[in-house]
């Protein structure tokens, strides 16, 4: 069996969802002002450190570590898929949001 601990994998998924929810990149994209970022989390802006961005970066790393400890086999593949998915999903979610739920100026693509 590939899974060592289901609780670690579920908690990793929950942490990733929290990170995604906190920094959904639309409509107020804070990355425009970011001087440095990590996985679409602005760590420093022109005003200094962004506490929420740094916290989400740490949570993202914790989720990756939980994935590593939650699986017996295919650890690197799982981490690669999570990082790839986390970098590709926001673009499609923005399109989905604009075409379904958005109204007014936010619905303009």
How far apart the termini lie comes to: 44 Å
Which assembly state applies to the chains in this document? single chain
Overall shape: it is globular
Number of domains: 1
Query: Strand count, sense and closure of the main sheet?
Result: 3 strands, antiparallel
Give a structural overview:
This protein has 109 residues and is mainly α. It has one domain. The protein is built from three helices and three strands, in the order αβββαα. It has helices at residues 6-22, 51-70, 75-100, and strands spanning 34-38, 41-45, 48-49. The chain has a three-stranded antiparallel sheet with strand order 1-2-3. Helix 1 packs antiparallel against helix 2 (51-70) and helix 2 (51-70) packs across helix 3 (75-100). The mean pLDDT is 86.
Write the layout of secondary structure elements.
Blueprint: H1 6-22, E1 34-38, E2 41-45, E3 48-49, H2 51-70, H3 75-100
Antiparallel strand pairs: 1-2, 2-3
Helix pairs in contact: 1-2, 2-3
Would you kindly provide a brief summary of this structure?
The chain has helices spanning 6-22, 51-70, 75-100; strands at residues 34-38, 41-45, 48-49.
Summary tags:
109 residues; mainly alpha; 3 strands; 11% strand; globular
């Amino acid at each position: 069996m590939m899974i060592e601990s289901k609780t670690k994998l579920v908690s990793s998924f929950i942490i990733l969802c929290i990170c995604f929810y906190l920094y959904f990149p639309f409509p107020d994209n804070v990355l425009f002002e970011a001087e440095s970022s990590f996985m679409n989390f602005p760590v420093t802006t022109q005003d200094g450190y962004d506490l929420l961005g740094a916290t989400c970066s740490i949570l993202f790393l914790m989720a990756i570590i939980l994935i590593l400890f939650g699986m017996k086999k295919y650890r690197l593949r799982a981490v690669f898929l999570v990082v790839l998915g986390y970098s590709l999903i926001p673009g499609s979610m923005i399109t989905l949001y604009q075409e379904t739920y958005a109204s007014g100026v936010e619905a303009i693509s």
